[in-house]
Specification:
This protein is mainly beta. About 10% of the residues lie in helices and about 45% in strands. It has three helices and 13 strands.
Length: about 350
């Protein structure tokens, strides 16, 4: 371990930077008291004298209970008053610091000046700041107004230009049809069948030997570094050393077995069959541009029936600006409008949403 000699300050006369080896102040001869803070000046060199290293390793100072003098750990009698060391004699505390946390000043630290008195003054407002603020407000208002007019709905008068309606009836016929499937439904009559591929299954065929590069971390040594300082309680510090493993990335080639699969077809029976069923045949349609809708006639022959029905009803409105809007309605509401009547339309700002205000 690297030993460094610390410093301490005399709390009696104010002498600073006293060498750690000194148990008493060279200025006033007062012994350093219990609790004296030892410190390491910046860039403190390691102690090179073997005598100082041995002095640092004997342990923390003990404090005489009769005269409060500091004494080396390897003496049993106080050097100041000759009182014997007792088992209850206090000793300087041993402290451990993390890197950079060891004290750099002692008990008489005058390096930190008192905080300067601050006077609060009102900062001058730049000339351009109010202008920028006004411009920003105007831009925001412009955006809000533009959005308001863009999305605002408006109402306008419009007259009915035309009515439109359409009704359809699907006609279905009961016929024999030919279909294909993997199964024959109830009522179906098989015409032919064959074995066909319905799906594929992956089946392991064999393994093939492959090579690949594999990386691994290999420890190639250790790194020793200073991870803190220990105040030995006698005016000296020792560097605490830690070690970390040092790794290196190395690559090697390894072989492995890669499975190879075959796509094996799965066969099943595919049927061609005929079946009697209702199928769409034709659509009967009726339409008009008035308010008198009716269902089309549906002449049915043998093996025919009427199927699903559909109906739609529309009104085209013409505004004073010459714009046309065609809207869909249910039958009851559609019949409630008067031909040529005038109505109020509510149109969204984008024009894609129109409704009648009634």
């Amino acid at each position: 371990m690297t030993i460094r000699e610390g410093r301490w300050d005399c709390q009696y006369c104010g002498q600073v930077g006293i060498l750690g080896r000194e148990k008493s102040c060279p200025n006033c001869a007062r012994s350093r008291p219990e609790g004296t803070r030892f410190y390491l000046p910046d860039e403190q060199a390691a102690a090179s004298e073997q005598k100082l290293v041995q002095q640092a390793k004997i342990g923390p100072d003990w404090i005489c209970q009769f005269c409060s003098s500091s004494n080396p750990a390897n003496v049993a009698v106080c050097h100041h008053c000759n009182a014997a060391r007792e088992g209850s004699s206090p000793q300087q505390e041993v402290k451990t610091y993390r890197p950079g946390e060891a004290p750099k000043s002692g008990d008489m630290d005058l390096s930190t000046p008192p905080p300067a008195r601050t006077v609060k003054t009102k900062a001058a407002t730049p000339v351009w700041l109010p202008i920028v603020g006004v411009v920003g407000v105007l831009l925001i208002l412009a955006c809000l107004c533009g959005g308001f007019f863009l999305f605002r709905s408006s109402e306008t008068e419009a007259t009915i230009e035309s009515f439109n309606w359409e009704r359809t009836v699907a006609v279905e016929a009961f016929r024999t049809v030919t279909e294909q499937d993997w199964d024959v439904p109830a009522g179906g009559r098989t015409i032919s069948q064959e074995e066909a591929i319905r799906s594929y299954e992956q089946v392991l065929s064999h393994y093939e030997t492959r090579e690949r590069q594999v990386s691994e971390q290999v420890q190639v040594g250790e790194r020793t570094y200073v991870c803190g300082q220990r105040d030995l309680g006698n005016g000296f510090f020792e560097d605490i050393e830690c070690t970390d493993p040092v790794y290196e990335t190395r690559y090697r080639t390894e072989t492995y077995q890669e499975p190879v699969y075959d796509q094996v077809p799965i066969y099943d029976t595919y049927y061609t069959y005929e079946i009697d069923k209702w199928v769409p045949d034709r659509t009967e349609r009726a339409a008009g541009r008035d308010q008198n809708p009716f269902w089309p006639e549906v002449p049915l022959g043998e093996g025919e029936r009427a199927g699903p029905r559909t109906e739609s009803y529309q009104i085209t409105f013409l505004t004073a600006d010459g714009e046309r809007h065609t809207l869909d309605f249910g039958l009851e509401e559609w019949l409630s409008f008067e031909p040529g009547g005038s109505y109020k339309l509510k149109i969204s700002g984008l024009g894609n949403d129109v409704e009648v205000v009634r």
